[in-house]
Amino acid sequence: MRHAFLTDVQIDARALAHRRGFGFHDDEPIDALTLLERLAARYPEFSHERVADGSLGEAEAQWDSREKRLLIPESVFQAARRGEGRALMTLAHEVGHALLGHEGHLNRAPAGGRAERVSAKLRSMEYQARRYAAAFLIPDTPAVRLLDATALSKHYRVSMSAAIVRHSELRSGESARTLLLRQAGLDI
Question: How much is the pTM?
Answer without folding.
Answer: 0.84
